[in-house]
Amino acid sequence: MVRFRSFWIFPLLASFLLYLTSRGEPKSRFNDLFWLMPVGILIWTLLEYALHRFVFHIQFPIRDPGLREIVNASHLAHHASPRDPTKLLVRPLYGLAISTVLYAALLALSRNTFSASGIMTGVWTGFLYYEAVHYRVHFSLSESGFIARQRRRHFYHHFTNNKRGFGVTSPLWDHVFGTTLPRP
Predict the structure, then answer these.
(1) How many domains does the chain contain in total?
(2) Which of 24, 118, 141, 180 could make an SS bond with 36 (beta carbons 3.0 to 4.6 A apart)?
(3) Spatial distance between the Cα atoms of 12 and 106, rounded to a whole number of angstroms
(4) CA atoms of 158 and 51, how far apart (whole Å)
(5) Residue 33: which residues within 8 A CB-CB, separation 6 or more?
(6) 107 Cβ contact partners less than 8 Å away, ≥ 6 residues apart
(7) How far apart are CA 129 and CA 151, in angstroms?
(8) Residue at 182 is within a domain
(9) Which domain holds residue 47?
(10) pLDDT at 44
C-alpha cells in the first residue's frame, strides 16, 4: 500500500484544490474543465519527457550531495535495478515539490486559481497514468497491446540506448525532439 501512496494523495489534493478554488466561480466555469484538464495532461507529457531527459539523465557530475541523492533516488537507482518495485514509482514528496513549483507557475501565468487548479488536476491525472503505465511496463507479462509496445520502447531505453525513448506514456515528444527509437 505504501508503494501506491500517490494514487490517493493526488486525487485528494485535486478534489480539495478544485473545491477551494471553485467556491466563488459561476457554475458555467466547470465546463472549462473539459479543456483545462487536457491541457494539463499535455503539459504532463512534456514534463515527463523533459524531467526524464534533462534531469534524470543528467550528463555532468553532480557536486552537491543532496541533489545527487535526489537524482539517484529518483532515477539512476531505477536504471540500475529496473525490476525493484521500491525504485520504480516517484516518491510522493518529490511529486509534491514539483507540483508546488508547477502550480505557482500556472497561477502566475493564468492569474486565476480555478484555471491553474484545473490544469494542475490534468497534470496529476497524467502523472498517475504515467505511474500506472510505468509499473505495468516493468511488471506485466502481457505480450500484446499497448503495454507490450510501451515495454519494448521503454526496455530499449533501459538496456540498449538511454539517449532515446524518454517518453514512457507517449512517444509524442520523442518525435518532436528527435529522440525516437530507430525503426527495426
Answers:
(1) 1
(2) 118
(3) 19
(4) 16
(5) 18, 118, 121
(6) 113, 116
(7) 15
(8) no
(9) 2-18+33-177
(10) 97
